[in-house]
């Protein structure tokens, strides 16, 4: 398996990629601290992740793609998966390595993963699609499909809606970050176009005070 490199390519990259990296580098430590116990308060998250773990099992490695500080990478590892993390932000990867020194974390972009074709039994994209402009999102979904083995699963989570906006303050810092809410049908269509079969989707109501919109989970499988 080719792993992502820690160095960021010097070639010109899309503006949204640079903005996302810079924002998450800025908030990495405070983000990790504020969300470290968030999973304990979300039975829906745990239910979907548990289903993903049961379906993937011991069939091969799993990538937590857009892993942030590794909180879900560690959780999946605790449930028995062979899992590693990839994130665009070097600051987030540093935080993940400190929190989970026995797990593997690398810097990389979801738009061009440094992974071989058909190398993952599972791919988790947990709120890691929401900073990609809609016109670029099919490329990301196709990249996630590319790295899955036949029979492999993709689980993604995102906020539901059609709105987009710029985040100027987050986790105690001034930042500049674009965010996009997504429609489950649109994400499902992208999965289908990328050659995946949608197995399940769940939409739940927001949990105040942090969530302002419904939240969606979508599970897809690469045909055998």
Automatic annotation (TrEMBL):
Which top-level group of life is the source organism from? Bacteria
Gene3D superfamilies, alphabetized = Vaccinia Virus protein VP39
Q: Which UniProt keywords apply?
A: Methyltransferase, Transferase
Q: Name one GO molecular function term.
A: methyltransferase activity
Q: Does the keyword Iron-sulfur apply?
A: no
Q: Might you name a Gene Ontology BP term for this protein?
A: methylation
**UniProt key word Transferase:** yes
Q: Which residues form the Methyltransferase domain?
A: 64-152
**Short name of one Pfam family for this protein?**
Methyltransf_25
PANTHER family membership = METHYLTRANSFERASE, RHODANESE DOMAIN-CONTAINING PROTEIN
Q: What's the protein called, per UniProt? A: Methyltransferase family protein
Q: Could you tell me which species this protein originates from?
A: Actinoalloteichus hymeniacidonis
